[in-house]
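Researcher: Good morning. I'm working through a list of sequences from a screen, and I'd like to move beyond sequence-only analysis. For each chain I'm collecting a predicted structure so we can compare shapes side by side. This is the next one on the list. No need for commentary yet; just the structure.
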Amino acid sequence: MNIALKAKSRLQCKIPIHDRAAEQSCLALLQSCNSLPKLAQIHSRILKLGLLNNPLVLTKFTATSSDLNAIDYATSVIFSPESDTLLYDTFLFNTIIRAYAQINNLKTNSIECYNLMLEYGVSPNKFTYPFVLKACAGIGDLNLGKSVHGAVLKFQFGDDIHVQNTLVHMYGSCEGGIELGRKVFDEMSERDSVSWSAMIGGYARLGLSTDAIDLFRQMQISGVCPDEITMVTVLSACTDLGALEVGKWVESFIEKQMVNRSVGLCNALIDMFAKCGDIDKALKLFRSMNGITIVSWTSVIAGLAMHGRGLEAVALFEEMLEAGVPPDDVAFVGLLSACSHCGLVDKGREYFDSMKNDFGIIPKIEHYGCMVDMLCRSGRVKEAHEFIQKMPIEANPIIWRTLISACCARGELKLAESITKRLIGNEPMHESNYVLLSHIYAKLLRWEKKTKIREVMDKRGMKKIPGSTLIELDNEIYEFVCGDKSHHQSKEIYEMLDEMGRKMKKAGYVPTTSEVLLDINEEDKEDALNKHSEKLAIAFALLKTPPGTPIRIVKNLRVCNDCHSATKFISKIYNREIVVRDRHRFHHFKDGSCSCRDFW
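Model: Good morning. Structure tokens for this chain:
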């Protein structure tokens, strides 16, 4: 008999019948307790009746404290000097570990409690480890997770499906741990919807969205019915990839398999359609929803902003206010972004001021970032610089890089150089700062300095993020990079590129060679521009899709001026609507013009 059982049996022998009545009375009070003052009164009663060392009462007291978000109060009572450590049992520790595991900033307490459990000689059971592993997932410490996994095997709980599911989730939540998670997943003798959701979710969290969708297809083949969590995760993967056709299939699956679509699932669908290029479908879903939440409103407002439909986004925000829904800080990020993308500077200022004045919302760094972006996009670079210097909170590197990019676009290269050098001093291992400085030197035609920057990056093992473009065709995702010749149809793709180039020049297209930041002649610069990833993806789409059908692509970086100009010509020449999602927004090209009106 272990310590916990001995303690229980000893306690049971000692408690007379009249104390049993006191015990039941306290348990009943704890069951109905709904406030912290009442909990404190019950605590006093427990002390008065001498039940501080009663495991049943202590465990119920802990559970009630957890429900009232007061787990620290419970632990201060349980681990007080007056408590008898011999009475601690597995169920009590599990209750505490679970409570801490559910609180974001207190997950380390969960691990500390687990270690204390082992120190006191209280044996964990199969219910202990899902809670401990959930805490490890929240902390994101791979080595800690591995050590807990070792304990799982030591105590022989490695075959329990709930423990296995949480192991998969834990590894998928830790950087570099996804392969270990997949190993656990592959070795499971049986898998339920939670198992598949955990693995799919791990891929999606790490940006391995293609793997997430592939695994979902395997789930379908296996015959396991996905639950709502699975579908939300798959939709987030579709959103990341811009995989509209897969997203439509997921919507169709949801309609067939799920009787009731929850608000959460509807919000995920709205977000997917908005970020995959079909904002009108997102709006239609929004209008048909029951139980619209602030998340629903915000998703559509942000979606309209991304598509350059700023006036509609502003109108929807006003409609939200009229509906009596108070905006939160996220709604204002979407609203200010809408004003930024459409050049509504004065309107944006009004809304920024109203955050605090009318709604009591203190602007965060994201809101200041929107204001800087708004001023930069409208060409007010010096005003943006002054705004940053007057901000009540310190600007983050993202804001400074926004200003630097605007300085480069507007010819304020000396200011851009000084800010970038300061950023490198603060972030010596952040590659994008060096890339920015390299671009500045190229624009200044200081090729030697540009070369030195590249040499520094090489010495420090830093690499520029290559531009890449994704395109979805026939439910497959294809990726192209600049100068890509890895595709088995690359010969045909480059022949199409040549055809596109000839037709565009005939229509009046002039390559923007200033975009090529290399010390090479004009002809080579034109050739380099012609091999940009978005042009390759569009050429592939023209080869593989019927005439007149839309083309949708996703670029991981901002679309360059030359590709933006070229795509306008292509849309007119080939009579195609071309939808491009870049790092910042959507561009809808049609009949030789773009929805952004060259404001991006």
